[in-house]
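Intended use. Records like the one below are meant for learning the mapping from a protein sequence to its folded structure. Do not use them to infer anything beyond what is encoded.
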Amino acid sequence: MFKKVLLAHDGSDCSQEAFRLALEIAREDRADLAIVHVVDITKATSVISGDASLAQPWLDALDREGDDVLARLQAEAQTRGVRVRVYKAHDAPARAITHLAESLDCDVIVMGTHGRAGISRLVLGSVAEQVIESVDVPVLIAPLKVLARVKRQRAPSSIPLPAL
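Structure written out for the chain above:
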C-alpha cells in the first residue's frame, strides 16, 4: 500500500512507539523508511533571548543527541531488513517534516504526539496538528496516552480477566 514512509522522531517515548509502527508498516509493505530528527532552532534561540552565541552550546548538544538517535534507529531498521535513510533538519519541526515529506514524495507520515491539552497546548502548539494541516498525505499519530493503554493491555496480568 505504501512505498515511502516518513517517521518524525524527537527522541521521546512516544516517538519510539511511532518508530515501531513505522517499522511495521515499512516491513509489511516493503516500503522505504525515511526518519527525520529535527533540531528546533526556533525554540533554542527564543529560550536564550534570541542570542545565537548563547544558544550555540545548547544547539550543539541537541545536534549530537539527534545524531545518536538517528544512528540507533537506522541500525535497528537495517537489522530488521528495512531500507532506511535518516535525515536531520535544523528548523521549526512542522516546517521541516512537511518539507521533507514533500521533497521525498512520501505516501504517509508517522509521528507521535505528547497529547498535551489546555494551556500547554495553546502555548506550545501541536507539531502533529501543524503537519496534518500542511500535507496531502495520511498522517498516523501515536498519542502517548493511547500507547500507555496498549502497553498495559499487552502486559501479562496476574489478575485473570472475566469470561464474556
